[in-house]
Amino acid sequence: MFNSIRSFCMLQQLNFLIKNHFLHILVLREFCLWEVRNLERTIYIRMRNRVQTRPNKTIYLKDAAQIIADERLLPKLQQMIIHQLTEKEGNIVIIDVMKVIQIITSQFADLEVQTIGPAQTIIEVAAKKKGVSIPFFLLIWFLLFFGSALTLMNFHDDVSMRSVQEKIYTIITGKKDAKPLLFQIPYSIGLGLGMILFFNHVFKKRINDEPSPLEVEMFNYQMDLDNYVIINENKESMKRINDD
Amino acid sequence: MTIKVIMIVFLGLASGLSVGAGFVAFLTVMGIIPRLTQLTKTMKMIHSYEWSVVIGALAGVASSLRDPALNISPLFLIPLGLTGGIFVGMLAAGLTEALNVFPILAKRIRLDGEIVILIMAIVFGKIFGSIFQWLYFVHR
Question: Which of B123, B100, B114 is nearest to A218 (CA)?
């Protein structure tokens, strides 16, 4: 008797719990639906850093930016024309995110645009890719070759490398020799090895995965150029207010 | 007399201090030691590398101010020459890099991808110049 009352109570409690839980799920579901309905009005765009293209092309939004949007909106957004390249614009065009937002909101007034990442895209217009001319290249190669050879000879003369090497020879062997080649030949090979080590390359093959200082330097130089172009080619980024 | 000795000692200390500081500053700017630790993944040993530079510099001082003679086989010159060469080569590479020559040059002649070829021109140029100097040039 007592036992059955107790089990009934437990059942009731369980029932209540389940109901409560169900209600909770319902509320949660409602909330989720509300979220979804709200989300599909928001699109996320991230401008690409740099786009390379051919002259007189039409730039679509998908070329200049990464887009996250509702599936029904996405194709329309991707095919949106944001810029038409012309001859007289030169080979670098900056597309500001403000312009993109303006174009999007002019067609879809109720969309909320969230931007992430860079505030502009650099469009680089390259005519047909030119190959490197071989004579020109050979000229530069030999310029560097003989230039560095002569520079090194001047450096050795400047720091009296010869007398130092002869002295090292005397210290080690106790004899005098005007031509300590046993020191000088390994030294010369080591010189080249040291440069290769520093730049982390043995004929295109890397010693390890880290970028070499030169690649970092190239990257920094490109970033500086990009920054300059972003400020100077973008008409909206500078404004002069005349006070007269 | 005492004052003179004190003056000389002071001058010697001062010049040694400035030369030593200058040497270390130069090494730091060239970034050779970080580069080597990065290549060999031995960042933790950096303090022993510092000491190796200091002791090496002192050994150089001792052997250039005195005239010691070790009277050992000339074959010891080979590792000495090789390591010395690598060090000078890294110094030269560091200097080239600090002066920002390559990025501008590669950009100008549109060789961004093939910059290794330009480095090789300089590397071979240096080896050629050095060997030419020691084999031929100094004896004319």
Answer: B100
Q: Are strands A50-53 and A65-68 parallel, antiparallel or unpaired?
A: unpaired
Question: Mutating which of B86, B102, B104, B114 best tests the A interface, going by the most A Cβ atoms within 10 A?
Answer: B86
Partner B contacted by A189 (CB < 8 A): yes
Name the A residues in 144-173 with CB < 8 Å from any B CB. 144-153, 155-156, 162, 164, 167-173
Q: What is the ipTM of this complex?
A: 0.73
Q: Which fold has domain A42-125?
A: eubacterium ventriosum atcc fold (2.60.480)
The CA-based dihedral angle spanning residues A185, A188, A190, A194, taken in that order and rounded to the nearest 10 degrees: 180
Q: List B residues 26-85 in contact with A (Cβ-Cβ < 8 A).
A: 31-32, 35-36, 38-39, 63-64, 67-85
How confident is the model over A184-202, as pLDDT tens digits?
889 998 888 888 888 766 6
What 3-state DSSP class applies to B126?
helix
pTM: 0.63
At A22, list the tokens: 């169900």
Query: Under a CB-based contact definition with an 8 Å cutoff, are residues A62 and A78 in contact?
Result: yes
Domain map (residue ranges) of chain A = 1-36, 42-125, 134-235
d(CA A18, CA A15): 5
